[in-house]
Write a structure and sequence with these properties.
This protein has a single domain, classed as Mitochondrial carrier domain (Mitochondrial carrier fold). By secondary structure, the protein is an all-alpha fold. The longest helix is centred in the C-terminal third of the chain and has 33 residues. The chain is built from eleven helices and no strands. The relative contact order is 0.15. The radius of gyration is 20 Å and the shape is globular. Helices cover 71% and strands 0% of the residues. Helix 1 packs across helix 3, helix 1 runs antiparallel to helix 11 and helix 7 packs antiparallel against helix 8. It comes from Crocodylus porosus (Saltwater crocodile).
């Protein structure tokens, strides 16, 4: 493990924090659309959230992701970069050797698997906090909507109470609800995240330049994020539904049951719900993520070079 570098984890933390700040409002809209609360379309969801909850509604549950997704991104970038160097060291004898596509695939898959351990509980709490203020009306369940003027009852007082409530009622397995769907989303998703980014950066970088410019990083990161999140939408829908399930109701027994019920009740189109907002949201989030990562990495290495010339 002589090639292990901690700086990738630090830079990933900065990138993760930047992405949360940029992307959380659209993430809230995405989650509510996917959970099937009868908004109809993206614009209707945006106007409804704003009318009922003002601007603050779009930032509901952001404190926990801001703290935790930064750690999650730190793990993803740190594992990916160190796995990539480890592969290159053993395959080519040089950890800084240019990676082949197969090397990037393996490093991305490893990052995807490892990320679920942290990412699943983080997403679960975020989604539960985002969804708990919504009226629990489902198209196939006869429940009376709450009368106008009465506040919707909340299930959780905050992230810590949410975690403790889930652990008390469902045990450790409850914290990892939706983990199977997340693996199916993230393992291929990170391949379509890091590989396009790597090749786009190379394409945008002029010959003779040692590293891509900030504008190249922004564009390459944004395009990679749009591709990754757009194609990950079907399993992201399943994951969101599994994790939102349990705030007021318990409908799904697992991934297959969620897919079956969703298809039976709403047709194939349900798995592509919010694909547009996923892709749109993926661009600024990932652009901010990669730019924060690369600039932090450059700063850290510059400081290290000054200390150890």
């Amino acid at each position: 493990m002589g090639n292990f570098q901690l700086e990738d984890f630090v830079a990933g933390w900065v990138g993760g924090a930047a992405s949360v700040i940029v992307g959380h409002p659209l993430d809230t809209v995405k989650t509510r659309l996917q959970a099937g609360q009868g908004y109809g379309n993206t614009l209707n969801c945006v106007f409804t959230v704003y009318r009922n909850e003002t601007v603050a509604g779009f930032f509901k549950g952001m404190s926990f992701p801001l703290a935790s997704i930064a750690v999650y991104s730190s793990v993803v970038f740190g594992v990916f970069s160190n796995t990539q160097r480890f592969i290159c060291q053993h395959r080519y004898g040089d950890s800084n050797h240019a990676s082949a596509v197969s090397d990037l695939v393996v490093a991305s898959m490893v990052a995807g698997f490892v990320s679920v351990g942290i990412g699943c509980p983080v997403d679960l709490v975020k989604i539960r906090l985002q969804m708990q203020t919504q009226p629990f009306i489902q198209a196939n369940i006869n429940l009376k909507p709450q009368a106008a003027g009465f506040p919707v009852q909340t299930a959780y007082r905050g992230p810590v109470h949410c975690i403790s409530s889930i652990l008390r009622k469902e045990g450790l397995a409850g914290i990892y609800r939706g983990a199977g769907a997340m693996v199916l989303r993230d393992v291929p998703g990170y391949c379509l995240y890091f590989i396009p980014y790597t090749f786009l950066c190379e394409w945008f970088t002029s010959d003779g330049c040692r590293s891509p410019s900030p504008s190249s990083v922004w564009i390459a990161g944004g395009i990679a994020g749009a591709i990754s999140w757009g194609t990950a939408t079907p399993m992201d829908v399943v994951k969101s539904r599994l994790q939102a399930d349990g705030v007021h109701l318990n409908k799904y027994k697992g991934v297959i049951d969620c897919i079956s019920q969703s298809y039976h009740n709403e047709g194939l189109k349900v798995f592509f719900r919010s694909m547009t907002i996923n892709a749109v949201r993926g661009f600024p989030m990932s652009a901010a993520m990669f730019l924060g990562y690369e600039l932090s990495l450059k700063t850290i290495r510059g400081v290290q070079a000054d200390i150890n010339p």
